[in-house]
Amino acid sequence: MNYIVSIGKYFGMLRYVFSRPERFKVYHTRTFSEIETIGINSLAIVAILSVFMGAVISLQTASNMDSPLLPKYTIGYITRSSTILEFSPTIISLILAGKVGSNIASEVGTMRVTEQIDALEIMGVNSLSYLVLPKVIAAVFFFPFLIIISMGLSLVGGYLAVTTTNLASHEEFVYGIRAFFKMGDIVYALVKTVCFAFIITTVSSFFGYYTKGGALDVGKSSTQAVVWSSICILLANFVLTQLLLL
Amino acid sequence: MIEVKNINKSFGKNHVLHDFSAQFEAGQVNLIIGQSGQGKSVLTKCIVGLLEVDNGNVLYDGRDFSQMDRKERKEIRKEIGMLFQGSALFDSMTVEENIMFPLKMFTKMSKAEMQERADFCLERVNLSGRNKLLPAECSGGMQKRVAIARAISMNPKYLFCDEPNSGLDPSTSILIDNLIKEITYEYNMTTVVITHDMNSVIEIGDHIVFIHTGRNWWQGTKEEIIKTDNKEIIDFVYASKFMKNLKGKLG
Question: C or N terminus of chain B, fewer CB within 10 Å?
Answer without folding.
Answer: C
